[in-house]
Amino acid sequence: MAVQEIKVGLMGLGTVGSGVVRLVERHQEDLWNQTGCTITIEKALVRDKQKERAVRLPEGVLTDKPEELLHHDGIDIVVEVMGGIEPTRGYIRQALETGKHVVTANKDLMALHGAELLSVAAKNHCDVFYEASVAGGIPILRALVEGFSSDRITRMVGIVNGTTNFILSEMKKNGMAFEDALAEAQRLGYAEADPTADVDGWDAARKMAILATLGFHTEWPLDEVKVRGIGDVTLEDVRFAGQLGYTLKLVGIARQDEGKVEVSVQPALLPDEHPLSSVDGVYNAVYVHGEAVGETMFYGPGAGELPTATAVVSDLVTVVKNQKLGVNGRSVVAPYREHKPKAPADIWSKHYFCLHVADEAGVLAGITQLFADKGVSLEKVLQVPRTREQEAEIILVTHQANGEQLLHIIEGLEALPTVVRIQSHYRVEGGEH
Amino acid sequence: MAVQEIKVGLMGLGTVGSGVVRLVERHQEDLWNQTGCTITIEKALVRDKQKERAVRLPEGVLTDKPEELLHHDGIDIVVEVMGGIEPTRGYIRQALETGKHVVTANKDLMALHGAELLSVAAKNHCDVFYEASVAGGIPILRALVEGFSSDRITRMVGIVNGTTNFILSEMKKNGMAFEDALAEAQRLGYAEADPTADVDGWDAARKMAILATLGFHTEWPLDEVKVRGIGDVTLEDVRFAGQLGYTLKLVGIARQDEGKVEVSVQPALLPDEHPLSSVDGVYNAVYVHGEAVGETMFYGPGAGELPTATAVVSDLVTVVKNQKLGVNGRSVVAPYREHKPKAPADIWSKHYFCLHVADEAGVLAGITQLFADKGVSLEKVLQVPRTREQEAEIILVTHQANGEQLLHIIEGLEALPTVVRIQSHYRVEGGEH
């Protein structure tokens, strides 16, 4: 087959967009060897054509008019790294409807409108790939879709937000308070000026919706991901967890038991020997448990110009290979399992409680009796020296309890006059590891 | 498209073969959803048809005649899990020459004759996939070939032999001597009665030859992998390494610098904070560093019935999908880089030495002077309390030194009258981590 020139329309020339330009340039020879094609950035859509850029593109490539790219007959593939929901969604639909394949790094869009876009793509025999949308440079979507195609995935636990993982790592390793660790993350460029999406867990939730949909073969909408952020995590929580042999991490948890699914994002305690516990700083990792394969973990950079660009350009290579074989849009397996969310009584886990209690005789007996009454046994109990006048702290780790028992226990603790307050409460994940 | 029945010929019904049968049965519905095909084991080649089996197959499936499978017109795909070089290689050639696709878990065969088999496959438009041949259940070959197709891989460090990793983990965690840890591995079924291939590093070497060939896009024959096993590793080595903040692991190292490649297997010291250091027991992990993506790691079970079967059956799914699209044998990228091995002077690394020396004044000065004379500076020096009359132990860790400097240093140490002997010497890997 003669050498073919593949023309790419790049939407967005920020950090990841610059990385894509650099990678396509630097690795041109390798890309040619992989695909037998030359890959050229034909148009790059930007908001401001005059702005100073980290990468230089030939005259005429930059444009601020989306139609110059979307209506360009020579462009086969659109790479979308501009982010946001609208107008991006409309652009991608237009691209697909005119037979252009799409590679995107846009987790927000894929978590909210992935099903719609994939169905438009299928109708038009187009590829849509989005490896870069979850865990940056880690090829986790390929692992789920192809590497484990023969297996039934039962659990995925992901550290999929580098900002919060950096903050919690700093709190544990350097004893920093939450606010100081956040400020440090902002100083280093790991956290945005407005860190809400990261800190509140919404960024991780989008990634977990994508992982759950692919891993469990069931449509899992973002609004069915239960989300709790790390805004109320204290240094004391991190330290107590450490004393008990746990590491506190913001994790996404997706579990499937007997066909029923739960997906959540929350700060949780992982046993120190769990492979995710030692994933520090801005690194990401996804732990995947399959019925047949057992425990696996995929680790790497979760963000950054070149790591994310690697995922984008590898997807681009797959599109080009498919194009040469004439099989674009033909290899996607649409979700085929019924959507069955777990009820609270189906969600089983261990739990950690830190209680501030009155410093009187019989308090611990009353509390442990409450757990026993609800049918939940205790794995660890730690009484901590009194922190202030008339108060003591009690740390408890339960054995497996379900969501209903948990609610009853919390209600019960709140009603006990000897319990001043539930200082903190976290799920303990990976105990069956 | 109408439902299609895909008939598989299974060669070998040992541990992995039984796993393949189980997985294809148990996950039939999922496999159907993934491929739109039913997958049936049509024939299974065994040595002894009368032997009691872990899985039951319908009447007439078992055969001890290879031609019943290889000349069977209805069989589209041969799954080879019988192992060995001959007659397996001949069977696979025959299968490919008659247009049958091949999935194999045979690392020995692929390391020795991979290039030949892949070229026969290409001529006949057949697929050959061998994900299970390296690191069992971890989809590492897919990650290299597809996930990082856009990147240039610079280093791969692999814990790719579970037996030796179990032995070294037991030595470190439980203070067991090498022989006791080996006996324990044999008792648990992790090591063969004849553990030579594992302990001497040859099993790992075969996997590294496959990884290097795929990761660096260059033909890397097995006889160019430098191999040193763990037979002479002592408990003292493991302990001294630990005191200095390192973990001793049998690792495969494949590095590419400026187009030149080195591939070796050896016991080496990894800094405790390196992601591979905490990979314990029979688990495998492959650390991959790419120019653009940076550091990644893939972790999971390296062997076992169902983990390995997962890799085999996932390959089977890919063959079936390719078949439905009519693109078998069309997506393989043959090695395209020139084969350029590094000279010793190109191989840079830190090194660890444990020296038994005469317990006299000026010994350390003489030794450190030797390193200085060869242009190698020292990162750590540890003088250990005298172990026996008139002797002391000196532990040294160098900064980066090349293979030529290393040879000169070893010669120099052997010539120094104050050095009783070089008790042990290991490469330190991952220091640039």
Automatic annotation (TrEMBL), chains A, B:
InterPro entries: ACT-like_dom_sf (IPR045865), ACT_dom (IPR002912), Asp/hSer_DH_NAD-bd (IPR005106), HDH (IPR016204), HDH_cat (IPR001342), HDH_CS (IPR019811), NAD(P)-bd_dom_sf (IPR036291)
Source domain of life: Bacteria
Gene3D superfamilies: 3.30.70.260, Dihydrodipicolinate Reductase, domain 2, NAD(P)-binding Rossmann-like Domain
Reaction(s) catalysed (UniProt annotation): L-homoserine + NADP(+) = L-aspartate 4-semialdehyde + NADPH + H(+)
GO molecular function per UniProt: homoserine dehydrogenase activity
Keywords: Amino-acid biosynthesis, Methionine biosynthesis, NADP, Oxidoreductase, Threonine biosynthesis
Annotated metabolic or biological route of this protein: Amino-acid biosynthesis; L-threonine biosynthesis; L-threonine from L-aspartate: step 3/5; Amino-acid biosynthesis; L-methionine biosynthesis via de novo pathway; L-homoserine from L-aspartate: step 3/3
Cofactor: a metal cation
Signal peptide: none
Segments forming domain ACT: 352-427
EC number annotated for this UniProt entry: 1.1.1.3
Family: Belongs to the homoserine dehydrogenase family.
Listed name of the protein: Homoserine dehydrogenase
Organism of this sequence: Desmospora profundinema
